[in-house]
Amino acid sequence: MYSQNRKAKNTISLLLTYAFLILFGIFMIYPLLWVVSAAFKSNDEIFKSLSLIPQKIVTNAFIKGWYGTGQYTFGRFFINNFILVVPVVFFTITSSTLVAYGFARFNFPLKKLFFVILISTLMLPDSVNLIPRYILFNAFGWVDSYKPFIIPSMFASTPFFVFMMIQFMRGLPREIEEAAIIDGCNSFQILLRVTGPLCKTAMISMGIFQFIWTWNDFLGPLIYINSVEKYTIALGLRMCVDSAAAIAWNQIMAMTVIAMLPCIIIFFAAQKYFVEGIATSGIKG
Amino acid sequence: MIKSKRLIATLVLAFFTMSLILAFSLAGSDKVKAASNKVTLRFMWWGGEARHKATLSAIQAYMKKYPNVRINAEYGGIEGYMQKLITQLVGRTAPDIIQIDVTWIGELSAQGDFFADLKTFREVNLKPFEEKFLRDWCYSNGKLIGLPTGVNASAIHYNKDFFKKFGIPENKTWTWEDILTTAEKIHKKDKNYYLLNFDATVCYYLLKTYVLQKKGGKWINDDYTMGFDRKTLIEVFTYIDKLFKVGAIQPFSESAPFQGKPEQNPKWLKGELGMLWNWTSTFAANKANVPSLSMTMIPIMKNAKSTAVTVRPSQLLAVNKLSKNAKEAAKFINWFLNDKQAALILKDVRGVPASSTARDALEKANALDPVITQITSEALKRAAPPENALSQNQELEKIATDVIQQLAYNQLTPVQAADKLMALYKQKLNEIKRLQSR
């Protein structure tokens, strides 16, 4: 009798938990579904109803939106985005890992000071150094190219990632590395053969973060990119949004759906590592 | 150990050297092609799809006509445009031809002297522009910093179907009294319908307009004093209060999500709201959502001291002072705004053209919406002088919209609202005076 009671209680609390989670999940995912459904709605219906099912299904929004103003298609903006994002992600991972390895495993003069500087740049809001950075990159002649994004990423310029990697590496047991030294590895071989592979999850989450942030970045490309042929998707999407003009919202929503796809695919493909990388950084050891 | 450290150092160095080499090879890849007598101009503007398409084909036509000129189009939405422009102006990388808004002139000239004086160029023909219009809007410190692309005026957009449903004549000249009585009748007939699609910002325009028509002069005088008295203010707040009480305006508690963007209110899109106070330049966009849309003049009092009708340039086209090809840029602007061929391509994507030659060409070709032409010319006839910067102050606007909202939610009576507004304005104006006289 007692155990039956408890069983019933458990089932009820489980049901309540699931009901809450499902409701909350719907609440969180509704905007996403709305964007998808809006891509199939006619333009005047978008603001009139909150319903997810279009009254009249319109499919040409994808085609029309893709051609945009006709000068460059969204295909161009997509390719641009990949040309920008892929090197940035690659260089961020390699350079941040290297710098973090140095901080986590080596002693060198002024290490503490450098670490404090690194952490303090983490606190600096991005907008503060926008103008000085622009003037600097302009003096280098990098404006209207992707260099202001790619080249800084070669120098571990996102302190958040360096910090995350340092914390992760500090959690790894030193004994493994010592064993590797006894086996005759030098420091670089240790990074390549031992520490690197152990950091895989953290590196993958770093990659996902950087991919999504760079993919969706609006202000950076807005400031640095002038030529429409070099526009990224974020700029392409807002190209036709003007307060005094008729806006084809369904076309913009359709292109938004397409623009979201790479992020969603990457996230789900690497979800396993991503969760692991976040959950284990800093608590191992 | 020492050996391995040296190896790491070498490898790290190698990595950075490689990155640097890559950086410089990237840098070399898009060197500008050296051209001798060819001129390349950069032209930056914001807008929607229609404006982009028309402007691009106008540029094509120009490059066909003058093959030695190449124009690079740099366009996008309004979002972030000013941020980018200021960064470019400060970084000295701004384009040769720049579209700017008249409301930015104050802020931009406070940052520096960025634009060339267009009246000094022989390439530009100023005759087709109304001189008073240029004087009022396009000069800063005696310099003609830009030419108007079009004429934009405040007007009332109304839904023809709505008017038909309630038997309101379309060719009516509205007065403030008419609005109140008509609105009351409509709301009594059907509880779902309201005559006015007004948010707090529009109520603030109404407030200013009413006061200016009654008193004349300025909303805020140049000496940081208010251009109105308590009695007038109580009168207009009583009027606004009545609008809410009789159901002329949809209660703010329902329309609050669309504060600042009343044209997106679903009730307006469904045709349950009759009138929207807006610019002539947004007419085409609003008509795309409400097909039976037309326009009329804003109400003007009998014996009004000022019409308070705002007529302003849609935007200005300016030439960058640092441009190496300023003359060519000026020549392009002249063609873009004054030429018949350009006008026929651009039509009204920047409002009704301000240049008379362009306007004539469009009228001859029947390329303008007659409603826009009619309202624009009527508004031009009754245009009030431009407001000073103080009267357009954003902080003062914020104070007024807050007070209006408190009135709308019945937290203040009209008399209290007037007193509160005056007290807060006095405080804020003193503050502004202190800051600006420093």
Automatic annotation (TrEMBL), chain A:
Q: Where are the transmembrane segments?
A: 12-33, 77-101, 113-137, 149-169, 190-213, 247-270
Q: Which residues form the ABC transmembrane type-1 domain?
A: 78-270
What are the record keywords, sorted? Cell membrane, Membrane, Transmembrane, Transmembrane helix, Transport
GO biological process terms, semicolon-separated: transmembrane transport
Q: Which InterPro entries match?
A: MetI-like, MetI-like_sf
In the UniProt record, does the keyword Transferase occur?
no
Q: Which SUPFAM superfamilies match?
A: MetI-like (SSF161098)
Q: Which Pfam families does the entry link to? A: BPD_transp_1
Query: Which CDD domains does this one have?
Result: TM_PBP2
Q: What is its main location?
A: membrane
Cellular component per GO? plasma membrane
Q: What Gene3D superfamilies does its record include?
A: MetI-like
Q: Which locations, inside or outside the cell, does it occupy?
A: Cell membrane
Membrane topology designation: Multi-pass membrane protein
The UniProt entry's sequence similarity note says:
Belongs to the binding-protein-dependent transport system permease family.
Report the protein name in the record: Binding-protein-dependent transport systems inner membrane component
TrEMBL record, chain B:
Which superkingdom, per the lineage? Answer: Bacteria
> What Gene3D superfamilies is this protein classified in?
Periplasmic binding protein-like II
State the InterPro entries in the record.
Bact_solute-bd_prot1, SBP
Q: What is this protein called?
A: Extracellular solute-binding protein family 1
From what organism does this protein derive? Caldicellulosiruptor owensensis (strain ATCC 700167 / DSM 13100 / OL)
